[in-house]
From TrEMBL:
GO molecular function, one term: pyrroline-5-carboxylate reductase activity
Annotated localization: Cytoplasm
Name of the gene encoding the protein in the UniProt record: proC
GO cellular component terms given for this protein: cytoplasm
Organism classification: Bacteria, Pseudomonadati, Spirochaetota, Spirochaetia, Leptospirales
GO BP field: L-proline biosynthetic process
Keyword Cell membrane: no
Pfam family, one: F420_oxidored
Record's keyword annotation contains Cytoplasm: yes
Protein's pathway: Amino-acid biosynthesis; L-proline biosynthesis; L-proline from L-glutamate 5-semialdehyde: step 1/1
Protein name: Pyrroline-5-carboxylate reductase
Domain Pyrroline-5-carboxylate reductase dimerisation, chain residue ranges per copy: 151-260
Length: 263
C-alpha cells in the first residue's frame, strides 16, 4: 500500500531528534511547523517557525513533542483542543501523555535513537490500536520501527536502542585504540574498525533475509577457527566480562528510564 504522508505536522522542540524527524517529514512532502523557545530561526530548511504554542496548534492536527522528559506534561497541558500527540521522551508513560493532553486526544509514545538523523533510526513505539496507523505514517522512511506490545518494555527499548549508539561508539573507539596500541595509526585503525562493524552488520542482515532463524553466534563460528586468532581474541573479551558488561549496561539504562518516569 502506498505511503500517504501527513499534510502538516507541528514540532515542539527542534533538537537532534526533533530536527531529524522534521527533516525526514519535509523530504516526504509534509509541511512542518515548529515551536522552540531556544531558537529564533529554524536550523532546518523548510521548517516554518512559530512564536507560540497557540500559533502551532492552528497549523496541524498531529504534534511531535520533542522536549526533555520533565517538560512533556507541562507542554501538553498548554494545548487547547484534542489532537494526535507523539512523544519521544524517555520515561514518560502513555497514561501520563493521555492525562496531560486535551480530553479526546490520541497519544503515541516513541523511543527513537541517534541514527534517526541519517534515516536509520531503530524505534520502538507504544500506543492503542486506533493510533497504530498514525504512528506508522509518521515514522515511515525514518528507519526500523517496531510496535511494542507491553508499555513496560518501552524502558527496555530505551536501554537497548535508545542508548545503544553510545555503546556502539564506545566499542568502536576501543577497537581503534586496540589497533593504535598494536602499531596502526589512529586513522588507519578507526577506518578499519568502522568498516568492520558496518560491513559485518550489512552481511548479517543479508544472511537473515534468507534465513530469519540464523543466530549471530552461528556466523561468528564461521570465522572462529580452532586455535586461531579469533578464538584467542574472544577469550580475552569474555575474561574481561564483555558480554556481561553489555547486558548490565542495557539493564542499568532501562532502570534509569523507569526512574525518569517517576519524576
Amino acid at each position: 500500500m502506498a505511503h500517504t504522508p501527513f499534510k502538516s505536522v507541528g514540532m515542539v522542540g527542534l533538537g537532534k531528534m526533533g530536527g531529524a524527524m522534521a527533516k525526514a517529514l519535509i523530504t516526504q512532502g509534509t509541511k512542518v511547523f515548529a515551536f522552540d523557545p531556544h531558537l529564533k530561526e529554524s536550523p532546518i530548511e523548510g521548517v516554518q517557525m512559530v512564536t507560540t504554542l497557540d500559533s502551532l496548534e492552528k497549523e496541524a492536527g498531529l504534534f511531535v513533542i520533542a522536549v526533555k522528559p520533565g517538560l512533556v506534561e507541562p507542554v501538553l497541558k498548554e494545548f487547547q483542543k484534542p489532537a494526535i500527540f507523539i512523544s519521544i521522551a524517555a520515561g514518560i508513560s502513555h497514561s501520563q501523555l493521555v492525562s496531560s493532553a486535551p480530553k479526546g486526544s490520541t497519544c503515541v509514545r516513541v523511543m527513537p535513537n541517534l541514527p534517526l538523523v541519517a534515516n536509520r533510526g531503530a524505534m520502538g513505539y507504544y500506543c492503542e490500536d486506533q493510533a497504530v496507523t498514525h504512528a506508522e505514517r509518521l515514522l515511515y522512511g525514518m528507519g526500523e520501527s517496531v510496535r511494542i506490545s507491553k508499555e513496560s518494555l518501552m524502558d527496555t527499548v530505551t536501554g537497548l536502542s535508545g542508548s545503544g549508539p553510545a555503546y556502539v561508539l564506545t566499542f568502536l573507539q576501543a577497537m581503534a585504540e586496540g589497533g593504535l596500541q598494536e602499531g596502526l595509526s589512529y586513522e588507519e585503525a578507526l577506518g578499519l574498525a568502522m568498516e568492520t562493524i558496518e560491513g559485518t552488520l550489512v552481511y548479517f542482515r543479508e544472511l537473515r533475509a534468507k534465513d530469519h532463524a540464523l543466530h549471530p553466534m552461528e556466523v561468528r563460528n564461521w570465522v572462529t577457527s580452532p586455535g586461531g586468532t579469533t578464538i584467542h581474541g574472544l577469550d580475552a573479551l569474555e575474561r574481561g566480562g564483555f558480554s556481561t558488561a553489555v547486558r548490565d549496561a542495557i539493564r542499568r539504562a532501562t532502570e534509569r528510564s523507569k526512574e525518569l518516569g517517576k519524576g
